[in-house]
Amino acid sequence: MRHIRNAIYTIRPYERGIQETFGKYSRFVKPGLGIQIPIVHIIRVRDVREHTLDIPPQSVITKDNVEIHVDGVMWVRPNPDEESIKRTFYSIDDWKRAIIQLAMTNLRQEFGDLTLDESLIAREKIAENLQTVLNTFAVEWGLIVSKVEIMLIDPPDDIKQAMHKQKTAEQERRAMRLLATGEFEAAEQQKKAIIQRAEGEREAAIMVAEGKAKAIRLVNESAQKYFKGNAQSLKQMEMTETALKDNTKIVITEEGISPTLLLGSIPITTSEENK
What we know:
There is one protein chain. A 4-stranded antiparallel sheet has the order 1-6-3-4, covered by helices on one side. Strands 7-8-9 form a 3-stranded antiparallel sheet. The protein has a two-stranded antiparallel sheet with strand order 2-5. The protein is elongated and about 155 Å long. The protein contains 7 helices and 11 strands. It folds into 4 domains: 1-47, no CATH class; 48-155, 2-Layer Sandwich (Tetrahydropterin Synthase, Chain A); 157-226; 233-274, no CATH class. Helix content is 51%, strand content 28%. Helix 2 packs across helix 4 (123-138). By secondary structure, the chain is an alpha+beta fold.
């Protein structure tokens, strides 16, 4: 806040002011160049830009009786209309200090309604609730709380150590689950590979057997169709060869060699001798 007592003055674009005449409010002053009567008039000026205000660190007790340290930050600005600017001067002596104290009080209340675990995951909810409560009171002072952020939630050291151990144990359990899942999937893939290989070998064996059967069938069909007479002669020749090896007597006829076996030492005759 600044005071202007000069006869000629300038109000900047981000400022709003009020003029007092002999200590009494007389008019609202907007940005621009102006003239006043020194001693008779005085202009009080407000900066209506956003003001960044820290919420100092403090100890708060959670719903489950755990003491934690918290702090935050908020963005506050005077509302630029005439009535709000008047309130920043006449309804509160130090609006910045007043809004900070109000924030600290309500911050303790917000954490007092939550357990430690709830507090650690409720930063945004706490900030939104705090902003709503602050604006309820700040409007009486001509202010607007634009945003609130919770910067720090610091539990005691023993609780932080316990939380760290719990987190480490959870990470180890998660790693074990991932490892077990990976091994299971690998075993399943190996099982599928073995089954597929066995099926491939079985199908290959079936194809080889079918191929052999087909080849045998084709040979038989060809032999029956094209080599029937020759096959019979070949059989007779095989029998003759066997008989000769055993010194068996045979008869040669006009139709060829007769595979008839004779007893004793009857000489081999021809058809001419039989005549």
